[in-house]
Amino acid sequence: MQVAKWGNSLAVRLPASVVDALELKEGDDIEIYADRSGAFSVSKKPTVTERIERLRQYRGRLPSDFKFDRESLGDRDSR
Fold first, then answer.
1. What number is the average pLDDT over the span 58-63?
2. Is the pLDDT of residue 75 over 70?
3. Which helix (H) or strand (E) covers residue 51, if one does?
4. Residue 74: what pLDDT?
5. What number does CATH give the domain 2-62?
6. Any idea what DSSP says for residue 72?
7. CA distance linking residue 18 with residue 61, whole number of Å
8. CA–CA distance, 18 with 62 (Å, rounded to integer)
9. DSSP, residue by residue, 5-41
10. Distance between CA atoms of 3 and 14, rounded to whole angstroms?
11. % of the chain at pLDDT higher than 70
12. What residues contact residue 34 under an 8 Å CB cut-off, 6+ apart?
């Protein structure tokens, strides 16, 4: 990979193999994680649609008697 000047910042040029593996296109957001040893990973940030789809995978995994009571969590009278 090559680092290049882009305005006041630096940019990393990704090789075609990485672009293909992550199915990237111009304008996509990516995340780069680095550790202290200098190793890093690049991942494509999930879109809103992809995040919603991941949440849908949890549908039906709560106990049948589970009830979320928003009123008791936000009870302003108990402050």
1. 74
2. no
3. helix 48-56
4. 64
5. 2.10.260.10
6. H
7. 35
8. 38
9. EETTEEEEEPPHHHHHHHT--TT--EEEEE-TTS-EE
10. 9
11. 90
12. 40
Question: What does the buried/exposed string (b/e) look like for 7-20 if buried means 16 or more CB atoms within 10 Å of the residue's CB?
Answer: eeeeeeebeeeeee
The tokens describing 58, both together, are 């949890």
**Buried b or exposed e, range 36-73, using 16+ CB within 10 angstroms:** eeeeeeeeeeeeeeeeeeeeeeeeeeeeeeeeeeeeee
Average pLDDT over all residues of the chain: 83
Question: What is residue 78's predicted lDDT score, i.e. its pLDDT?
Answer: 54
Is 42 within 8 Å of 31 (Cβ atoms)? yes
Q: Give me the amino acid identity at 65.
A: D
Q: Which residue type is seen at 29?
A: D
Eight-class DSSP state of 75: -
Residue 56 above 70 pLDDT? yes
